[in-house]
Design brief:
single chain; about 120 residues; Oxidized Rhodanese, domain 1; 5-stranded parallel sheet; 7 strands
Amino acid sequence: MTDVQTISTGDLRNRLDQGTNFEFWNVLTDKWFTGEMIPGSCRMPLDTIEHGAAGVPKDAEIITYCGGPTCPQSMQAAKKLSLLGYTNVRAFEEGLEGWKAAGHSIEKSEPVHAA
């Protein structure tokens, strides 16, 4: 099994504050996406990640996140990316729940209503 590195809330906050350039993806599938996003991130649903990541260099830094510690999607996405040959992938397992618990702001976008 592929070992996936993780990143803490504090380290992620520092990376964002420093303006470090990395891919930062909310990987929640449409079924679970509520419209909440960590500022600076974009949507890359787990079930579309193979196609969505196609234009991203294999050595790009990618950080995935989902709803929180009880949500498996960030780790699943990171493992999938590693299996696709991406070499600098980390999962932010604390996700939206941990981000908000630390007092950080979120952005709201329209939730996707799955059929």
